[in-house]
Design a protein that fits this description.
By secondary structure, the protein is an alpha/beta fold. It has one domain (about 35-215): Vaccinia Virus protein VP39 (Rossmann fold), CATH 3.40.50.150. Helix content is about 30%, strand content about 30%. The chain contains six helices and eleven strands. It has helices at about 15-25, 40-45, 65-70, 85-95, 135-145, 175-185; strands spanning about 5, 55-60, 75-80, 100-105, 120-125, 145-160, 165, 170, 170-175, 185-200, 205-215. Strands 4-3-2-5-6-11-10 form a seven-stranded mixed β-sheet. Strands 1-9 form a two-stranded antiparallel ribbon.
């Protein structure tokens, strides 16, 4: 099992930093940008082939995942991010189609979420920004209470050989065993893989991907 962290001085808050990033850079120039989240989409459709499921995408930013989910007929998508600017970019891109989406601006660790309200929880590159023990515990409690029993949890974090910082923030790094230990016996690991994400600047970032079922 590998779980590593990089300690460093942080900006005033992650939310302020994320908002500043989205207000000062084009959405396709942030380090986590990818034109389409192919693996996310593939694993979500595997986890929930029925189109009437409820999907929560945390830390969605301005990603096109919501566009692709809507195009496939998923009509109960909730998009959550710290940055109002990122959500505004996504809403403007979708136009009237975005009226089908439940848009929420807030911190995944503290925002009110419906108990057992979601069939799929998706997180690409949020959890690894939680460097504090209390933050990680709060995130885990949110997943446990908001995901239905039998629901699935798709998560991607930096791998053990990934960067120690991202967008000027310190991060944690995990392998699949580290994520399994972090979320505990209440989650069964269904699938795992590694992937190298190429940033808009041409840097390769190793990621660990896992798909869990809520037991």
């Amino acid at each position: 099992m590998t779980t590593t962290s990089a300690a460093a001085d942080e900006p005033a808050s992650t939310s302020e930093h994320r908002e500043r990033v989205y207000r000062t850079r084009p959405s396709d120039q942030v380090s986590w940008y990818r034109a389409h989240l192919e693996r996310s989409l593939a694993w979500i459709t595997t986890a929930a082939p029925a189109r009437d499921v409820r999907i929560l995408d945390v830390g969605s930013g301005a990603s096109t995942l919501v566009d692709d989910l809507l195009a496939l007929g998923y009509d109960h998508v909730t998009v959550l991010d710290l940055s109002a600017a990122a959500l505004a970019t996504a809403r403007a891109r979708l136009g009237t189609t975005g009226e089908r989406v439940d848009w929420r601006c807030g911190d995944v660790c503290t925002v009110a979420l419906e108990p057992a309200g979601f069939d799929v929880w998706h997180d690409r590159a949020v959890f690894h920004f939680l460097t504090g023990t209390d933050e990680r515990a709060a995130y885990r409690r949110q997943v446990e209470q908001a995901l239905k029993p039998g629901g699935q949890f798709v998560i991607a974090t930096f791998a053990p050989d990934g960067p120690e910082r991202c967008s000027s923030l310190p991060v944690m790094r995990y392998d699949a065993a580290g994520l399994q230990q972090m979320f505990g016996d209440g989650f069964g690991l269904l699938e795992q893989t590694e992937e190298r994400h190429e940033t808009p600047g041409g840097h390769l970032q190793p990621f660990t991907w896992c798909r869990f079922r809520r037991l």
